[in-house]
Amino acid sequence: MFQTHKNAGNVLPLLLLALLLLAGGGYNYWRNLQAEPPRPYRSYADAELAQLISAYEGDVSRLGTSAPARSSAASASTGTLLQQRVDAFEAAQRRGEAHRSAVSELAGQEGILRELLSEKQTRSESPASVHIRRLTTI
What we know:
With 138 residues, this protein is mostly helical. The chain contains four helices and no strands.
């Protein structure tokens, strides 16, 4: 009779430890779930996602090759020296603005493409590995 109470006293710390690990794991899972980035393309079907990736890859390659090169060469014009400098300055501003616009558009397309590829990567993970990562990442 005394032996059963003695064994019960040995099990209680293990039970409390298991409960503490379970609560800590649940909290860690919830914290990691909240920290995951939003997935704006989650509702798209796999075929639609593949079409979007293909289209954005084409846009990025087209924009990357057609972006105007930034150059500081002044164009020759006639007139006074001051007028030539003003014209060269305005031409340089137009070229700079065209370059900034093209680079900005390219960066936007590349950002969307990265999000699409990230969504594809997320979908390729097995559900078990996703749950284990959420549970064990500190």
